[in-house]
Write a structure and sequence with these properties.
By secondary structure, the protein is of the alpha/beta class. Helices cover 47% and strands 17% of the residues. The strands form two sheets. The protein has a six-stranded parallel sheet, with helices on both faces. A six-stranded parallel sheet has the order 9-8-7-10-11-12, sandwiched between helices.
């Protein structure tokens, strides 16, 4: 029996260059449980020489794997697009030089776009040669239905990631303030993520109810969204807040003071977004669309609905909360227990995956 070792080769879209929150959590959990971890990030910042730098980082990553001498597990957080091409090369060498290769699926694109040539070639190769970690049961079942049964699979939810990130900030509150009901949306703001739709809801809500306060979090490059943000900021300077960039502490403070979190995404790659789980950690009622793994991660009295029914559901929940600020108390207490259970399950599942134990 060899010592517990793991290699992590991560790739994250620029301009971010560190490990993702999920990968960072995996690394921390393994170190805590006695694994010797070596990690390597292949991301390079944007710039004129980025293509050349990217090739060089992949060559160094291959050297990193070749030096493992077959006694380590290789962990790859699997994304999509240009990253997937480079990651497939890493996987090929990993299969030759490491003990096991575990791919952690962060993308729904192999499910929503299975006929894409890149997906056919990569997922056809890794299906039975690698071991697969999925974010949800829905992701696993749909992947198996389309691609067939992988060699071995585990489900590791994202609740452990959020718990680790925010456990020092407290948790859910119980009673809303009927005189100030705060609604939040956070994402990389885009039409596909539902941000333009959110702004239209904010416009309607702020015009109807003087107790409403709306906060929008995240960067955007879409001109229509930028204009809508500007219009709302001018019209409701005290009740509409836009924060493009924020630290963990800022997010914790905002979510600890809000009551409703809305997420009407239609993004094809939507999986189990951390923003939704983070909102629930702080006791927010989440109203989301019903795509990806969202139906699996929404707590009652939150709801996941078709986009056509989203507006109606949102105003229904807002009205209930305004009439009875305590209506979420019992559910919130139960959800706190549920959150802790799911977090513990995630911690156990990732450890069992690396120790090659059945769930």
């Amino acid at each position: 029996m060899f010592a517990k070792k793991a290699l992590i080769v991560a790739d994250f879209p620029p301009p971010l260059t560190g490990l993702s929150l999920v990968t960072d959590w995996v690394k921390a959990e393994l170190i805590q449980n006695g694994f010797a971890i070596s990690s390597f990030n292949t991301t390079t910042p944007k710039g004129v020489f980025r293509p050349l730098k990217r090739i060089m980082t992949y060559l160094r990553a291959l050297q990193f794997i070749l030096a493992s001498k077959g006694r380590s597990d290789l962990y790859i957080p699997l994304h999509h697009g240009a990253s997937l091409m480079g990651q497939s090369l890493i996987i090929v060498f990993g299969l030759m030089r490491t003990h096991r290769v575990l791919v952690h699926h962060h993308s729904y694109y192999p499910i929503t776009e299975p006929k894409k040539i890149l997906h056919v070639s990569v997922h056809g190769m890794i299906l039975r040669k690698c071991e697969h970690v999925f974010l949800s049961e829905d992701m696993r079942s749909k992947y198996v239905k389309i691609w067939g049964a992988p060699k071995k699979t585990w489900v590791v939810n994202n609740f452990g990631v959020v718990n680790k990130r925010f456990k020092t900030y407290g948790g859910s509150k119980l009673i809303a303030n009927e005189n100030r009901i705060s609604v939040v949306h956070a994402s990389n703001l885009s039409t596909a993520k539902g941000s333009l739709f959110v702004l239209s809801l904010f416009q309607e809500l702020l015009g109807k109810d003087s107790s409403a306060v709306c906060t929008l979090l995240g960067p955007t490059k879409e001109l229509l969204i930028i204009k809508s943000i500007s219009d709302l900021s001018l019209k409701y300077p005290k009740r509409f807040h836009y924060i493009p960039n924020y630290a963990t502490q800022d997010l914790a403070e905002i979510l600890s003071q809000s009551q409703i979190f809305i997420f009407p995404s239609t993004y094809k790659n939507e999986a189990a977004p951390l923003a939704v789980i983070e909102a629930q950690f702080f006791g927010n009622i989440v109203i989301s669309s019903n795509i990806g793994a969202l139906p699996e991660i929404i707590f009652d009295p939150g709801a996941f609905v078709e986009i056509e029914k989203f507006r109606l559901k949102f105003f229904e929940v807002f009205s209930k909360l305004k009439k009875d600020p305590k209506f979420n108390v019992h559910k919130n207490e139960k959800n706190k227990i549920n959150f802790d259970d799911l977090s513990t399950k995630a911690e156990n599942s990732i450890l069992r995956a690396f120790e090659n134990l059945d769930v």
